[in-house]
Q: What sequence folds into this?
């Protein structure tokens, strides 16, 4: 299982940037100030890309931790959580 | 702790959290009335503020609220922090109900409402972490899931109360009175202050969490909860695991089963207003006790597999269920000869060298389904339909599409289908109760007492506010981008839930008892 955790870490490392790429692509294809629907509104896309970028970075960090084996052994209690 | 004591703790926490969810939800549910009064489309600045109010309040501000109030809760205590969030939320909600409309104070109306909405988002961001932590830190070992599940039920009950109050007001007055500047739509906002006063009275009598009190007396509270939560690797990796392995999937399943289901019934299936609301009301009423059941069950068999099962069921069954909604409510499938047209109305309009005739028919079919069919036909100049008493003004809607002609609206389901739809929504709410019932106990058990409020609040509000809150927008984006693909909008919640299911299954442990 720990080997699976590590290999999946590579996938999470790739998924983060891929997610941002698809969001930016969606923005480029759909932004149209002449249209009235929310899906064409640039402000909406700016908000979404702004909020999802740190989340995608979080996914990359998660993948890195997984690859380094940080999740091989989880604490038995919350009091054991430490560096 | 005595049984009566823990009941008071649950009551104080749950009632307040319920009211905060009610306050947060009524804004979204009354968005049509609010946009007419405060964000008129003809004013581009007001339209921009409307976008910010809808998106920024839910997405950006809730996680910030989680950080601000989470930090306070870990520095000064749970009780006072989530008393502050309740007072703030109730005040902001009540004030929204007092803001004059755009017609009275111009651009100040949307500016004030936007600010109040953002502040609501901040307050909500601080409430949940406090309530869940407060109850969990009073709960005995082996009952944490059961006791915190009462907090979990409050978001759905808050939604139910919001639905019920709005329906009660709307159905007891004419539409014009409800929608006017100082009309009935404001009543749910004003009601909030009464509910909040009661809840504050209850919460003021409570004591601080025993675990936090002990920590404080020993001088072991955190001096910088934000730094300890997010810059220390040991804790930060658990924050990431909580988000990607549990809350992210829970957020999309919860939102899809409730908010998206209601919007889908109204906008895609064109089920008429009252029926779409009562379908949700009945399903939620029957489903809500299962939050408590799955919280209780998680104390017996562990949290992980209940949450993962709920996610997996959503992944596998959302498409068949929503497909059934579409198929069963589609009036196009009915044989036109079997329809009884009980009422018909025809209007005409000249449009350049052509004219338009629109026929609106109220149709009944033998299965008890009623719907309104609107058929628009382009006629030529010399048509005999031009003259006579029936020439009236008709405006083609800007979104008129020839491929959606005829258009069907106000679909009213027969009794059998109505019960079937309630049952299907109920099934989806069971998925939501499985992923959400054990969630508070799960999150609390991941983090140490001194930074618990901060650490659990952020992933929770990212998972629910961001991932869950974006279900309508991203689903619409997918449906618009791939119009030929059936139910393309469901790819987002299914994809996120599937990803979370894989991460949670591989990386999470089934149970952490001690806190």
A:
């Amino acid at each position: 299982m720990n080997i699976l955790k590590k290999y999946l870490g590579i996938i999470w490392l790739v998924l983060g940037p891929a997610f941002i790429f698809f969001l930016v692509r969606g923005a480029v294809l759909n932004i149209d100030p002449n249209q009235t629907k929310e899906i064409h509104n640039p402000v909406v896309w700016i908000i979404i890309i702004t909020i999802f970028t740190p989340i995608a970075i979080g996914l990359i960090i998660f993948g890195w931790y997984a690859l380094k084996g940080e999740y091989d052994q989880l604490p038995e209690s919350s009091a054991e959580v430490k560096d | 702790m005595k049984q009566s004591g823990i009941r008071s703790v649950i009551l104080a926490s749950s009632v307040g959290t319920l009211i905060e969810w009610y306050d947060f939800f009524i804004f979204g549910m009354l968005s049509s009335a609010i946009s007419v009064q405060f964000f008129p489309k003809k004013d581009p600045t007001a339209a921009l503020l409307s976008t910010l109010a809808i998106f920024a309040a839910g997405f950006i501000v809730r996680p910030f609220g989680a950080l601000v109030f989470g930090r306070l809760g870990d520095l000064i205590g749970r009780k006072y922090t989530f008393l502050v969030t309740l007072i703030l939320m109730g005040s902001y909600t009540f004030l929204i109900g007092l803001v004059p409309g755009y017609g009275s104070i111009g651009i100040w109306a949307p500016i004030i409402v936007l600010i109040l909405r953002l502040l609501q988002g901040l307050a909500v961001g601080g409430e949940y972490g406090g309530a869940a932590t407060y109850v969990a830190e009073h709960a005995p070992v082996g009952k944490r899931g059961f006791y915190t599940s009462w907090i979990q039920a409050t978001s759905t009950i808050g939604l139910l109360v919001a639905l019920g109050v709005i329906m009660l007001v709307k159905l007891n007055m004419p539409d014009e009175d409800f929608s006017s500047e100082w009309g009935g739509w404001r009543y749910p906002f004003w009601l909030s202050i009464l509910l909040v006063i009661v809840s504050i009275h209850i919460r003021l009598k409570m004591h601080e969490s025993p675990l936090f009190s002990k920590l404080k007396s020993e001088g072991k509270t955190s001096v910088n909860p934000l730094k300890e939560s997010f810059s220390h690797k040991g804790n930060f990796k658990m924050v990431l695991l909580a988000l990607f392995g549990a809350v992210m999937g829970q957020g999309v399943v919860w939102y899809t089963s409730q908010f998206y289901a209601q919007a889908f019934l109204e906008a895609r299936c064109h089920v008429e207003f009252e029926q779409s609301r009562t379908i949700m009301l009945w399903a939620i009423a029957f489903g809500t006790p299962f939050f408590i059941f799955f919280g209780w069950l998680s104390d017996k068999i562990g949290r992980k597999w209940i949450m993962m099962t709920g996610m997996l069921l959503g992944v596998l069954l959302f498409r068949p269920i929503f497909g059934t909604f579409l198929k069963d409510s589609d009036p196009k499938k009915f044989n036109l000869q079997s329809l009884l047209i009980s009422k018909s109305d025809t209007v005409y309009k000249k449009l350049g060298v052509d004219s338009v005739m629109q026929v609106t028919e109220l149709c009944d079919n033998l299965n008890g389904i009623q719907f309104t069919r609107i058929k628009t036909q382009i006629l030529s100049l010399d048509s005999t339909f031009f003259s006579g008493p029936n020439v009236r003004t008709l405006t083609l809607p800007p979104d008129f599409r020839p491929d959606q002609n005829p258009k069907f609206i106000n679909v009213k389901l027969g009794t059998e289908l109505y019960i079937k739809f309630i049952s299907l929504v109920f099934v989806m709410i069971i998925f939501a109760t499985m992923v959400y019932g054990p969630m508070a106990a799960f999150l609390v058990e991941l983090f140490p007492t001194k930074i618990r409020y901060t650490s659990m609040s952020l992933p929770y509000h990212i998972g629910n506010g961001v991932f869950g809150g974006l279900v309508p927008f991203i689903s619409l984006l997918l449906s618009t981008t791939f119009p030929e693909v059936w139910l393309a909008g469901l790819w987002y919640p299914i994809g996120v839930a599937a990803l979370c299911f894989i991460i949670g299954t591989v990386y999470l442990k089934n149970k952490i008892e001690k806190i």
User: Anything to note?
Assistant: Chain B touches chain A through 46 residues (CB under 8 Å). The longest helix of chain B spans residues 233-267.
